[in-house]
Amino acid sequence: MFKKIHHIAIISSDYQASKDFYVNKLGFNVVNEVYREKRDSYKLDLAISETYQIELFSFPSPPKRVSQPEAAGLRHLAFEVDHIHETVSKLSDKGIECEPIRIDEETGKKFTFFQDPDGLPLEIYEN
Question: Can you tell me the distance from the alpha carbon of 41 to that of 15, in angstroms, rounded to the nearest whole number?
Fold first, then answer.
């Protein structure tokens, strides 16, 4: 029935800080950016790769997100990387702190977490 994930929507509390984070620090490419005056809202389409896309939204005074990892609902976004230590080092060079690297007990693969400017948990998972 479903072919693939089309996009992931993220609502930011500080649009410029989140845009800087996802574009300049994480290196996602801007596909399209629109200001929607009636909603006082930006919508920024970001390309992660040839396959997936993030929609970054801003809205006036959005409610805080529950960010504890075991809260009900969307837990986190995970990005696949080839070399986790290299990725952690690049993130660190850009002022982004990662948790200690762990090993997935089921797969034996390395992974870690970091957060976006609103505290959204983001995972990097070594393929």
Answer: 9
